[in-house]
TrEMBL record:
<feature type="domain" description="Core">
    <location>
        <begin position="9"/>
        <end position="109"/>
    </location>
</feature>
<dbReference type="GO" id="GO:0016226">
    <property type="term" value="P:iron-sulfur cluster assembly"/>
</dbReference>
<dbReference type="InterPro" id="IPR000361">
    <property type="entry name" value="ATAP_core_dom"/>
</dbReference>
<dbReference type="Pfam" id="PF01521">
    <property type="entry name" value="Fe-S_biosyn"/>
</dbReference>
<protein>
    <submittedName>
        <fullName>Iron-sulfur cluster assembly protein</fullName>
    </submittedName>
</protein>
<dbReference type="InterPro" id="IPR017870">
    <property type="entry name" value="FeS_cluster_insertion_CS"/>
</dbReference>
<dbReference type="GO" id="GO:0051537">
    <property type="term" value="F:2 iron, 2 sulfur cluster binding"/>
</dbReference>
<dbReference type="InterPro" id="IPR035903">
    <property type="entry name" value="HesB-like_dom_sf"/>
</dbReference>
<dbReference type="InterPro" id="IPR016092">
    <property type="entry name" value="ATAP"/>
</dbReference>
<dbReference type="InterPro" id="IPR031108">
    <property type="entry name" value="IscA_plant_cyanobact"/>
</dbReference>
Amino acid sequence: METTIQAPVSFTEGALAELKRLMSEPGFDTENTLRVGVKGGGCSGMSYVLGFDKKTEKDNEYAFDGVPFVMEKAHEMYLFGMQIDWQGGLNSRGFTFKNPNASTTCGCGTSFAV
């Protein structure tokens, strides 16, 4: 029996559609996978990482609704339960993050403190 590990983050339908669109673009490097994580910096202390790169030995692998992604094991405690959305409007365009672990968030929504 195969064990399924629940993904620590979720994606809205809009985010999934945009990610699938990006991955189907001509020239997309299929050696890369989606990375979700954090890094130090930003006006609130930590910034979100969302991009494509190579898996490392520090990563756990997950999938959400058919979209595979990796996350460093050490980042999971900061991001567990977070929802990633895609805003396609004229005034706000891009990925947004709803993180229940954030004690404060900056005005632009790309950095947080725990």
